[in-house]
Design brief:
By secondary structure, the chain is mainly beta. The protein folds into 2 domains: about 110 residues, 2-Layer Sandwich (Alpha-Beta Plaits); about 45 residues, Aspartate carbamoyltransferase regulatory subunit, C-terminal domain (SH3 type barrels). About 10% of the residues lie in helices and about 40% in strands. The strands form 3 sheets. It has a 5-stranded antiparallel β-sheet, covered by helices on one side. A 4-stranded antiparallel β-sheet has the order 8-9-10-11, with helices on one face. A two-stranded antiparallel ribbon has the order 1-2. Strand 10 and strand 11 form a beta hairpin.
């Protein structure tokens, strides 16, 4: 997917611009509008760092809307839990690509409930000692993106470092 650097312009100036070519996706996904810096977390969560197919994480891409963003390109159709993506970053858009064309755009939103994605950090929470209990978080404030632990009411910010 990642091509080689574009040929030199031959100008020989110290500020010569190098371009990176990323090939077109034939059938797969483009996860766009990821908050800058959050791309690697999503890349790992999707297991793309160990995947046998081609994928690409592009970081700090210029964005008119947010200044900078990350993008993930996957040259394969994979199953994604969109509720988790919505929790990590509700501004993400997933483009489904078939025959090199976008056939569907999926926008994220904050899920009502998130289970088993991260652990409660409250040391007195029952999920810290009783490992058979799945940590579950309920959307408490959609406007602020706040979730609360179902067991101890500790608050978490959607998109925060979990």
């Amino acid at each position: 997917m990642i091509g080689e650097r574009a040929p030199s312009t031959g100008s020989g100036t110290p500020k010569e611009i190098l371009m990176l070519n990323v090939n077109t996706i034939k059938n797969g996904l483009v996860i766009d509008h990821i908050r800058a810096g959050a791309g690697w977390k999503i890349y790992q969560w999707l297991g793309l760092d160990k995947a046998p197919f081609t994928s690409c994480l592009i970081q700090n891409v210029h964005s008119e809307k947010s200044g900078k963003k990350d993008i993930i390109k996957v040259d394969n159709i994979i199953n994604i839990d969109y509720s988790v993506l919505g929790f990590i970053d509700p501004d993400i858009c997933v483009n489904v690509i078939e025959n090199e064309k976008i056939v569907r755009k999926i926008t994220m939103e904050l899920p009502a409930k998130v289970s088993g994605v991260f652990n409660c950090k409250n040391p007195r929470c029952i999920t810290q000692t009783e490992h058979y209990i799945t940590p579950t978080f309920i959307l408490a404030d959609k406007v602020k993106g706040l979730y609360k632990c179902e067991y101890c009411d500790t608050l978490y910010q959607a998109g925060g470092n979990v």
